[in-house]
Each structure stands twice: as structure tokens, then as C-alpha cells.
């Protein structure tokens, strides 16, 4: 059992974020145990030929057989929606002593280090650059075009959901809804470690004004902390809607909705059961963003969609009227 202790004001600094770098690194878990992540199988089949052309030996070694990753590869985000390039730049600035310590902590002992890691740590500066370069190539080759837009829409929907839970039911309900491992009592957030694949020397953690950041992920079956309890408090939990990743867009049949709206707009309305941006929808439907924008504008003006802005990105979701129409 791990206990996170909250003092006065700590709950006010608890926040949500998602990390493209974290999802990139965690996706490497599929290489060790693909059966554990069935919703990623279609992507994994498409990605494997491209992966073989990358630094495959190193990428595989960034995840242990028990699916831990060195903490320096997943730095706590400094904002809710960091850019991959900014996060990778933080990895490149990792102190060299932290590089070795984090690999040894993940693999439990120095004797268990894979040969590619053991060799690399003999020249840590060059090895750190190789790790960052390998992740950059993996991101651009295997993830950014046809995988990340769909994942990002699921993570955005997750954040929106828990924002509503917090507003309507309070922090206790929000924490307990994140994962069955979590419980909230009297200013204490408790995380059960009973079913962890490997146990580490975790201890109770005081938030102590540092803020707790909650991170949804597509690659965890339950909530989990970082390996090092001295790092800023971070808790990763399973994202809602992970199963939708393997779904194909719903077909639009010749029914009343298609006759009323036309097939393209009916299909968009059905897809928007979870929030998505114009670019994400264009990726999923293999059409241009401008074509999607025209249909979204009509559905929005009709009151069937709402829209919210996050920086430069505008995401659309069905309104209650849109939900009723789809039923």
C-alpha cells in the first residue's frame, strides 16, 4: 500500500495532464507483451515493419520484462498538454548520473541490464543522445501520423470526463473513479500495490506543496506511481475509452439519420460520441480537414455539436440534442 498525504491546499494544486512522450515510451511495452494490450494489435501489425528499420535493440531495452521504464524517460509534464519535442528536450538534458541510476532502478540490479544498455552506460553522454534520437525516430515513423491523433482524442475525452466528475461529485469520487486500486479517506489517497507485477521500495509520500499530477495512459491496467518516490508526485492511471482505439468508424446505413443529415454529416455525428478535433477526424476518415470543417460548421450551427478550444486546437463533441438524435 502506498499512501499520498495531502495537507491544506494540496488538493487545490492537484491537476491532470497527458504526455505524448509518456505514451510513446509506454507503447514500447507492446513489444514485450502484446497480448496484454489487445486494443493496440491493429496498430502493432502496421507498425512492426517500420520498427525493424529503427534502433530496435535499444527501443526494446527501454522497457523491462516486467514493463517498468526508467523514470527519466517520463518526466512529469509542466503543463496539461506538452508538446513531444519539448518533452524530448527535457530528456536530452537528463543529468548523466540520473541516467544510470534510473536504468539500474528499473532493472532492479546492474547485472540485469541488457547488453545494449550496459555498453551504452560506459559512454553516458553519447548513450543519452542515442536514446533521445531513437525515441524521436520512433515517434515520427510509427506514431505521429496515424496513431497519436486517435490516442490524443481519447486522452482529451478522459480529462473532460474527470473534470466533470470533480465538479459534480468532488475529489473523493474522482479519485475512486480513476481506478479500483485507489481509495480516498480523510485527506489520504491510498494506492493498493497487491497486484503489481513487481514490488519496489515505495513508501508513503507527502504532497507537501509540490502538487500531484494525474496522467491517463493507454498502457496500464491500473494506477501506478513513478519508481523513485522522491520525484515530484505523479500518478499514472488507465485512460477511459482505451477499447475504442481498435474500433473502426461506425458505418452509416441508409436510415433516418443519414437521410436527414446526409451520409458525411451523419457519420461525423456518430463518431463524435467522444470529443475530437478537425484534424483527428480527418485522419480517421482519410479526408481533408477543410471538408470536415464544412460539415462540422453546419452541425455546430444546428446545435448538434459543442466546441471547446485548447490552445490552437478546437475539439467538437455532441450536445445532448446530438446524442438524442443519434439514439
List the helices and strands and how they pair.
Layout: E1 2-5, E2 15-16, H1 20-27, H2 29-32, H3 41-51, H4 56-61, H5 84-92, H6 96-107, H7 115-121, H8 124-143, H9 148-169, H10 171-178, E3 182-185, E4 188-191, E5 205-206, E6 213-217, E7 224-225, E8 234-238, H11 256-261, H12 263-271, E9 276-277, H13 278-285, H14 289-301, E10 305-310, E11 313-318, H15 320-326
Helix pairs in contact: 5-8, 9-10, 9-13, 12-14, 13-14
- State the major sheet: 4 strands, mixed
How many distinct domains?
3
How much of the sequence lies in strands comes to 5-15%
Overall average residue pLDDT: 88
- What spatial form do the alpha-carbon principal axes imply? globular
The radius of gyration over CA amounts to: 21 Å
Give the H and E element order: EEHHHHHHHHHHEEEEEEHHEHHEEH
Class per helix and strand makeup: alpha/beta
Residue stretches low in confidence (pLDDT < 50, at least 5 long) are: none
Strand order of the largest sheet: 3-4-1-5
Number of helices: 15
Entry summary:
This protein is 46% helix and 13% strand.
Outline the structure in words.
The protein is α/β, with parallel strands linked by helices and 327 residues long. The chain contains 15 helices and 11 strands. A 4-stranded mixed beta sheet has the order 3-4-1-5. A 4-stranded mixed beta sheet has the order 2-6-8-7. Strands 9-11-10 form a 3-stranded antiparallel beta sheet, sandwiched between helices. Helix 9 packs antiparallel against helix 10, helix 9 crosses helix 13 and helix 12 packs across helix 14. The longest helix is centred in the middle third of the chain and has 22 residues.
Amino acid at each position: 500500500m502506498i499512501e499520498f498525504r495531502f495537507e491544506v491546499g494540496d488538493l487545490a494544486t492537484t491537476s491532470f495532464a497527458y504526455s505524448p512522450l509518456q505514451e510513446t515510451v509506454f507503447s514500447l511495452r507492446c513489444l514485450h507483451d502484446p497480448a496484454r494490450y489487445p486494443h493496440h494489435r491493429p496498430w502493432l501489425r502496421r507498425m512492426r515493419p517500420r520498427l525493424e528499420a529503427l534502433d530496435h535493440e535499444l527501443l526494446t531495452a527501454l522497457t523491462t520484462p516486467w514493463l517498468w521504464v526508467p523514470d527519466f524517460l517520463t518526466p512529469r509534464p509542466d503543463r496539461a498538454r506538452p508538446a513531444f519535442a519539448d518533452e524530448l528536450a527535457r530528456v536530452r538534458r537528463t543529468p548523466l548520473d540520473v541516467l544510470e541510476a534510473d536504468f539500474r532502478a528499473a532493472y532492479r540490479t546492474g547485472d540485469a541490464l541488457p547488453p545494449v544498455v550496459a555498453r551504452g552506460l560506459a559512454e553516458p553522454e553519447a548513450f543519452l543522445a542515442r536514446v533521445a534520437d531513437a525515441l524521436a525516430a520512433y515517434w515520427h515513423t510509427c506514431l505521429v501520423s496515424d496513431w497519436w491523433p486517435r490516442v490524443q482524442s481519447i486522452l482529451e475525452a478522459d480529462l473532460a470526463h474527470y473534470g466533470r466528475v470533480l465538479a459534480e461529485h468532488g475529489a473523493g469520487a474522482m479519485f475512486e473513479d480513476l481506478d479500483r486500486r485507489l481509495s480516498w479517506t480523510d485527506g489520504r489517497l491510498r494506492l493498493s500495490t497487491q497486484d503489481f507485477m513487481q514490488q519496489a521500495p515505495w513508501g508513503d509520500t507527502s504532497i507537501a506543496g509540490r502538487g500531484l499530477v494525474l496522467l491517463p495512459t493507454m498502457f496500464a491496467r491500473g494506477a501506478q506511481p513513478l519508481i523513485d518516490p522522491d520525484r515530484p508526485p505523479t500518478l499514472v492511471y488507465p485512460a477511459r475509452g482505451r477499447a475504442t482505439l481498435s474500433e473502426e468508424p461506425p458505418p452509416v446505413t441508409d436510415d433516418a439519420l443519414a437521410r436527414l443529415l446526409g451520409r458525411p454529416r451523419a457519420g461525423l455525428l456518430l463518431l463524435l460520441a467522444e470529443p475530437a478535433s478537425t484534424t483527428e477526424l480527418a485522419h480517421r476518415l482519410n479526408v481533408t480537414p477543410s471538408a470536415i470543417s464544412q460539415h462540422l460548421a453546419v452541425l455546430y450551427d444546428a446545435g448538434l455539436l459543442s466546441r471547446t478550444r485548447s490552445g490552437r486546437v478546437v475539439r467538437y463533441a455532441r450536445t445532448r440534442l446530438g446524442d438524442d438524435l443519434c439514439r
